[in-house]
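TICKET: design request
STATUS: open
ATTACHED STRUCTURE:
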């Protein structure tokens, strides 16, 4: 977009302020500024000389990874999200909760560890009643990419100008330093004062993964902090004489990006053995998924009576009642009722991730519904995502918007938006992708 077009798009921030009562909503509807500085983004992504083609790789094969504009969120909604996260932390800490959710967890989740699990991802829709928790993920990707994205914003308007001040490049509050310290904290919780020497970033066929650019960024980040880092497929690992190895290298810590949360698939056997033996620090791990991210947990989190029976205090129950949409287990005996109410429901596999095999009830066929009944699903009341209007190739389009809060030990580290069209987040929408979040009054 040329300079005059940018100024014209920026003027929409002011033009649209009379239609809606809340500043964030007005900006999301009216600000069509292009705030992403692509040259600055390239510099952020290619800080290491070895990554000279990383920006080009994203542009060629992942053109919709980053949105050109920010997303605006009311500060009170951000505070509410933090309150919901804190409430869930209090619940998860209760022995009654752990006993309840481990009943349906795989055996690998029963291995105890002092490691908490890095990068919990709390995903929210902004409904009429404020933020609504859609799901929790234990392998939430995108945090380091979103740091680079936030640093690459330019001040197209006063609201965006704050980004440079809240995402520092060094010193206190630097997210990259905080991320490394998080991994060191996981290590110290299990190994004490022993030095952390090596990290393996593990995923199936990592070179073909959509978020490979982030794996590379994490590898460079660890190396800048004096930690040897490797990207590998789990089949390349070996568990030998009580040690997890990658070739001749003993692996101290595994940054686990696998979506086999139970580590039950055959290629993951060496990693599973090391996890059960606690021969390497694995983070996130099967126990974290069981405690936080199994979709059946949403059934308990939205059931006030059950929470009370587990010892959850009234104030915490009130926060969850307002922030977690009603969710139920899908059971064959409830088939008729579920079919009648399907247009109000979103169906998700209990142990799934992302949008795989998830369905809006109003899109269901009888055949798919029969498959859902035969499998292990939950049904959650639909909360429509927020909206962000952007100019794409000169045409104003409305994109759906959800929010992801990256969390470690109850602390909200970073918030990002995802802009998309279609049923679920897909990173295939022109103009969509990750968007930096700006909190406004």
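STATUS: resolved
RESOLUTION: sequence designed for all positions
ATTACHED SEQUENCE:
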């Amino acid at each position: 977009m040329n300079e005059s077009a940018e100024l014209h798009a920026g003027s929409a921030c002011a033009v649209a302020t009379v239609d809606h009562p809340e500043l964030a909503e007005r900006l999301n509807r009216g600000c069509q500024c292009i705030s992403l500085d692509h040259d600055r983004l390239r510099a952020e992504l290619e800080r290491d000389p070895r990554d000279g083609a990383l920006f080009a790789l994203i542009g060629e094969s992942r053109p919709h990874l980053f949105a050109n504009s920010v997303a605006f969120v009311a500060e009170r909604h951000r505070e509410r999200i933090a309150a919901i996260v804190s409430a869930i932390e209090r619940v998860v800490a209760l022995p009654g909760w752990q006993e309840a959710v481990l009943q349906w967890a795989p055996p690998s989740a029963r291995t105890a560890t002092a490691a908490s699990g890095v990068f919990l991802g709390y995903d929210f829709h902004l409904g009429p009643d404020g933020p609504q928790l859609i799901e929790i993920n234990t392998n939430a990707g995108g945090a380091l990419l979103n740091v680079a994205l936030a640093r690459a914003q330019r001040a197209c308007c006063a609201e965006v100008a704050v980004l440079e001040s809240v995402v520092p490049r060094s010193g206190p509050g630097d997210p990259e330093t905080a991320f490394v310290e998080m991994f060191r904290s996981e290590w110290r919780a299990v190994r004490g004062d022993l030095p952390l020497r090596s990290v393996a970033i593990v995923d199936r066929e990592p070179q073909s993964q959509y978020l490979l650019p982030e794996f590379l960024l994490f590898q460079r980040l660890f190396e800048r902090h004096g930690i040897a880092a490797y990207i590998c497929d789990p089949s390349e690992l070996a568990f030998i004489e009580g040690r997890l190895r990658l070739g001749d290298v003993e692996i101290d810590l595994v940054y686990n990006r696998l979506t086999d949360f139970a580590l039950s698939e055959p290629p993951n056997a060496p990693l599973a053995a090391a996890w059960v033996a606690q021969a390497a620090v694995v983070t996130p791990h099967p126990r974290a998924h069981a405690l936080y991210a199994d979709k059946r947990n949403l059934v308990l989190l939205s059931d006030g009576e059950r929470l009370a029976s587990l010892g959850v205090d009234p104030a915490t129950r009130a926060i969850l009642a307002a922030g977690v949409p009603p969710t139920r287990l899908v059971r064959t005996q409830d088939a008729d009722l579920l079919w009648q109410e399907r247009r109000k429901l979103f169906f998700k596999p209990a142990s799934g991730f992302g949008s795989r095999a998830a369905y809006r009830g109003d899109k269901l066929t009888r055949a798919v519904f029969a498959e859902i009944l035969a499998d292990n699903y939950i049904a959650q009341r639909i909360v429509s995502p927020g909206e962000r209007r952007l100019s794409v190739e000169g045409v104003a389009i409305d994109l759906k918007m959800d929010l992801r809060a990256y969390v470690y030990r109850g602390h909200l580290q970073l918030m990002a938006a995802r802009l998309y069209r279609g049923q679920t987040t897909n990173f295939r929408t022109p103009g969509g992708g990750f968007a930096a979040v700006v909190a406004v009054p």
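CLOSING REMARK: The chain has two domains: 3-296+385-440, 326-382. The longest strand covers residues 395-408.
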